[in-house]
Design brief:
mainly alpha; elongated; single chain; Receptor-associated Protein; 322 residues
Length: 322
């Protein structure tokens, strides 16, 4: 392969990665300013004065706000906002769509520089459409697993706090102070929303929207029922906490037993793609015939369908619901 093409591909990758990181850091900085002001308002009960607000950094731009208002009534915008909240990404819908556009352009240019074939550049652009979604789902899955692993201890802490005479709000503040993220971050948001005037039911519903967990749904249902009809909430939470801890333990054992099957699925599915890329880089003329003949495209399509189908079947077998 031409060294100039290799350097161009590496340079394009570095530029695209730098754009991603720069935009993310800029948007996250603006969101952190908003969260800091909200936290101060919830803690002190007063707004920030004009002089202090001018000294702070600006939040999202007017263009971003205008696009968000235009997208607010769209059905897909609500789904994207929910996905971003579950992944704990400090991005608006318009900013996320901008990242998708950048990903499409960057992946298409990178594929064109490496393979120098226009159909593969189109394939790279299609892959770029799904990269932000895959990244969001990975963050959501990791955050959800971490939350579920902490939920049993959290319920135990809530039950002990209620037994010691604390109210439910004080117990949630204790969780926000004593436990590590992500569960402390989420309960801190709940207490801030209640301090700003939302009801406890609405704040807990917002928590369930951000954390799509069946165990959390069980805990919130128990709290809401007790709030309506009364009862010993500490005892109910203790039983629920024991059940959740047992489920986490069983899931851990299943994950260990199925780890070999999951790794096998990843290796078998990725090996043909990896070998094809290596052969293409080593001998472009030998592999180039695959992309010039209709028979080659048919073979690639059939192979892709078989690989994806096998991967999905393996994942379906090794994933056992508890």
């Amino acid at each position: 392969m031409n060294p100039i093409a290799i350097l161009g591909a590496v340079g394009a990758f570095v530029v695209v990665t730098g754009i991603f990181v720069g935009i993310y850091l800029y948007l996250r900085r603006g969101q952190q300013v908003i969260e800091a002001r909200l936290e101060q308002y919830a803690r002190d009960g007063t707004s920030v004065d004009a002089k202090d607000s001018k000294s702070r950094e600006k939040g999202p731009s007017r263009l971003t706000q205008t696009l968000d208002r235009q997208l607010a009534d769209r059905g897909f915008a609500a789904n994207i906002a929910t996905q971003l909240a579950r992944a704990d990404l400090k991005l608006t819908v318009s900013e996320y769509l901008a990242l998708i556009v950048i990903s499409v352009i960057g992946c298409a240019l990178l594929a064109l520089l490496i393979f120098r074939i226009w159909p593969l550049a189109i394939v790279g652009g299609i892959v770029g459409i799904f990269l932000p979604s895959i990244w969001t789902k990975i963050r959501h899955r990791r955050r959800l697993n971490a939350f579920n692993n902490q939920l049993g201890d959290t319920i135990n802490l809530l039950a002990n706090s209620l037994r010691s005479g604390y109210s439910m709000l004080q117990s949630m503040e204790t969780v926000a102070k004593e436990l590590p993220p992500p569960i402390s971050t989420e309960f801190k948001r709940v207490t801030q929303e209640i301090a700003l005037g939302l009801s406890q039911e609405q704040a807990m519903a917002n928590l369930l929207r951000r954390i799509n967990s069946d165990d959390l749904d069980l805990m919130i249902t128990a709290i809401n029922v007790q709030h309506e009809v009364g009862g010993n909430l500490a005892e109910i939470l203790e039983i629920i906490g024991h059940t959740i801890r047992e489920r986490v333990r069983i899931k851990g054992e299943i994950r260990v037993l199925t780890a070999q099957g999951m790794i096998t699925g990843y290796v078998i599915s990725g090996l043909p793609v990896f070998l094809g890329l290596i052969l293409f880089l080593l001998n472009r003329e030998y592999m180039g015939a695959m992309f010039k003949e209709p028979c080659g495209w048919i073979m690639l399509g059939v192979g892709a369908v078989i690989i994806v189908s096998g991967f999905l079947i393996i994942q379906k077998i090794v994933r056992i619901e508890v």
